[in-house]
Amino acid sequence: MKTAIVAVTNDLTTDQRVHRTCTALSQSGYRVILVGRRLRESLTLKPREYATDRLRLLCDKGPGFYAEYNIRLFFYLLSKKADLFVTNDTDTLPAGYFASLLRRVPLLHDCHEYFRGVPELVGRPAVTRAWKFFEDLIFPRLKHVVAVNDPVADLYRHEYGITIEVIRNVPFSREPEDRSQKEVMGIPADRKVILYQGAVNVDRGLEEVIRAMRYVRQDAVFVIAGTGDIITDLRQLVSEEQLGDRVLFTGQIPFQELPKYTAMADIGLSVEKEVGINYQNCLPNKFLDYIQARVPVLVTPFAEMKKIVEQYGIGRFVKDHEPEHLAQQLDEMLGDEEALAGYRRNMEQAAHDLCWENERNVLFRVLNQIH
């Protein structure tokens, strides 16, 4: 049996795209090993149909982490029998590329985003130049590349003149879950739930939504399902605004359990601010998860999300991130039961079309080209 080693820099708990890639590799006849890192607060992983391995590192963040991880990953890949390496984003690419050269093992690279456009690199020219050095060195030599959407693929195609297939971040098809998670979280059944799920990072509009909850109808709560770089700041903001009964935090949720939380929502949010090329070109996991859960959406009208919302008629667009205006939009949506019911009906077709069972065929075709 062929072996594929898949590498990421996260702790494997919540990464749904990589999980879908690994399941498709397994279905293609590979024995799969998914490699990430273990953090002090990492949850125990639930059993999967493929093997997982998490490296313990001395550095948790910054240049030291990326250097240490790539060195450790490089020697890890050299030490394992493999027929395919899969790297996810530029932060795993140096180790994967040089190991593939030495071992003469094919490499498949997956671009989850335009890496130099992430908000964490905005205003950090020295760090951006360092990553550009590796991309300029390696990308023109890559033979097998996939990307999360057309805008990201186009950016790399234009810059490096390489062939890139698009595999969107669509979830597995599923029937809608019941909404019992409301009661598990202590939310009365008659309360309205506004949900944000996913990485809790900068410029995702979360501070503005929290402030908006001062003005939103009193029977609504805002649930933040996930964790990230600014989670402590958001908890502090909730305390300062005295909104502890209106804004709830779930903490980190394994992706296997996330659909239960998604299903309890009346509105799903993806209200990123217009900063950086990645947000402008994003097609987030959470947005597509809301569709599978048949949850109407309120989103920033970035091109990829706007196209889907308008095609299927499944929600509305943020016009302004000012808190009072956000509150008005949320109240208008929550108060229009007829429109919400229409969005949910329209989501049946969107959920049927935008699912992994359709999208994985692109990955199967790429794998056939590799071998």
Characteristics:
Rossmann fold; globular; alpha/beta; 371 residues; 15 helices; 13 strands
What Rg, in angstroms, do the CA atoms define? 21 Å
The global form is globular
The H-and-E topology, N to C, reads as: EHEEHEHEHEHEHEHEHEHEHHEHEHHH
CATH level 4 superfamily of the largest domain: Glycogen Phosphorylase B
Tell me what portion of residues adopts beta-strand conformation.
Answer: 15-25%
Alpha-carbon distance between the termini? 13 Å
User: CATH topology of the largest domain, what is it called?
Assistant: Rossmann fold
- Give the CATH level 1 class of the largest domain: Alpha Beta
Class by helix and strand content? alpha/beta
* Poorly predicted parts: none
User: Treating each run of at least 4 consecutive H or I residues as one helix, how many helices?
Assistant: 15
Overall tally of domains = 2
Arrangement of strands in the largest sheet? 3-2-1-4-5-6-7
Major sheet size, sense and barrel closure: 7 strands, parallel
CATH architecture of the largest domain: 3-Layer(aba) Sandwich
The overall pLDDT, averaged over residues, is 95
Helix content: 40-55%
Per-chain topology:
Layout: E1 2-7, H1 16-27, E2 30-38, E3 51-56, H2 62-79, E4 84-88, H3 93-103, E5 107-111, H4 125-138, E6 145-147, H5 150-160, E7 165-166, H6 181-184, E8 192-197, H7 206-212, E9 220-225, H8 231-240, E10 247-249, H9 258-263, E11 267-270, H10 276-280, H11 285-292, E12 297-299, H12 303-312, E13 315-317, H13 323-335, H14 337-353, H15 356-370
Parallel strand pairs: 1-2, 1-4, 2-3, 4-5, 5-6, 6-7, 8-9, 8-11, 9-10, 11-12, 12-13
